[in-house]
Amino acid sequence: MERIKFVDINRFHQPIREELLEAAARVIDGGVYIGGKEVKDFEANMAQWMGVREVCGAACGTSAIFSVLKGLGVKKGDEVITTVHTAIATAEAITLCGATPVFCDLEPGYFFLSASEVEKKITPRTKALLPVHLYGQPVDMDAMLAIAKKHGLPLVEDCAQAQGAKYDGKYVGTFGDAATFSFFPSKNLGGFGDGGAFTAKDPDKMKWMRMFSNHGRMQKYEHEFEGINSRLDTLQAALLNVCLPHLDKWNAARREAARWYDEAFAGVKNIIVPKVLPNTEPIYHVYVVIVPDREGLQSFLKTRNIDSGVHYPMPLSLQKAYSRFNQGAGSFPVAEDACAHMLSLPMHPAIRKDEVETVAEAVKEYLSK
Ligand SMILES: Cc1ncc(COP(=O)(O)O)c(C=O)c1O
């Protein structure tokens, strides 16, 4: 039986292969590999696409969050509230600032952080809120914005998995004081290596963050302060410029594939399909189901040549890297339970209906045993 890949990047890049090769050749022949027109164009194109004043490219999503938090003044002794269920990058960016990530459990039934948990965790040391639109499912932004406003806290949206998702008809990343993105190859707007971007509403802060990302400078050899090297490569920018116009179409294809899965699993016992808020347009970075015996199902799918993934096997609280926070098992019951039972099924913009049906049939066969 033909293997069904978890993500088949080559397949959806195939129609734009020639354009990608031309863009790569243009950069190679042009001899400018850091900064330049391609980066400026990409930043302008992405800003125009999402309807914000300015976007700054970054070396990756992690460094984009780090630059943004530094620009918001997050420092040693501060706390930043985020979800316990996310890629470690979200929390790493906080600790890189010397601050403490304060984890929140999930909203029951969803994969994003619970607003009531966020409110409970606010202390005088809280410096920012950092919700994550995990799996491309927008967080309850009304609740987040209300909390941020009530407590006078900046709100940063981690949109690494949600580029193109909408809340109340508007792209995520346009709600908070700042937003960050990742172009890791498997992301919805994936590059051909590492890459990322950020945007911030306050022009002065945005300028500082841009400078921080580039050794604290605007002009070569004029460093106003110390920063880091977190620039988007010219080659990545050129290739992303080719991909960006296809993003909304690719996301729509993912939504359609999710609908095929939802329909196939309707009425099936022992499986919970992704639940999204009604005022949102998710983009299914991954399609995650909850099942009683995740390991068993994953092994069974393997025998059918079907790839799957687990995003993520444990919440950050249980990672060795964060054992110093002493938040052992039982601290985040909703996330811990979800992590033990979740499985990500094959999902990408070029997945075919017959492939989704094959996966769904195999899942149903296992669940009916
Ligand atoms: C939610 C989330 N935040 C941040 C990141 C970091 O992005 P990057 O891998 O580009 O550093 C990722 C990607 O792994 C992510 O999934």
Explain how this protein is built.
This protein is α/β, with parallel strands linked by helices and about 375 residues long. It has two domains: about 15-105 and about 110-245, Type I PLP-dependent aspartate aminotransferase-like (Major domain) (Aspartate Aminotransferase, domain 2); about 245-365, Aspartate Aminotransferase, domain 1 (Alpha-Beta Complex), CATH 3.90.1150. It has helices spanning about 10-15, 15-30, 35-50, 60-70, 90-95, 115-120, 140-150, 205-210, 235-245, 245-265, 295-305, 335-340, 355-365; strands spanning about 55-60, 80-85, 100-105, 125-130, 155-160, 165, 170, 180, 195-200, 215-220, 220-225, 280, 285-290, 340-345. A four-stranded mixed sheet has the order 1-9-8-5. It has a three-stranded parallel sheet with strand order 3-2-4, sandwiched between helices. A hairpin with a 2-residue loop joins β6 (about 165) and β7. α2 (about 15-30) runs antiparallel to α9 (about 235-245), α4 (about 60-70) packs across α8 and α11 (about 295-305) crosses α13. The longest helix is centred in the last third of the chain and has 19 residues, at about 245-265. The two termini are about 20 Å apart. The protein binds pyridoxal-5'-phosphate. Pyridoxal-5'-phosphate binds near residues 87, 90, 158 and 196.
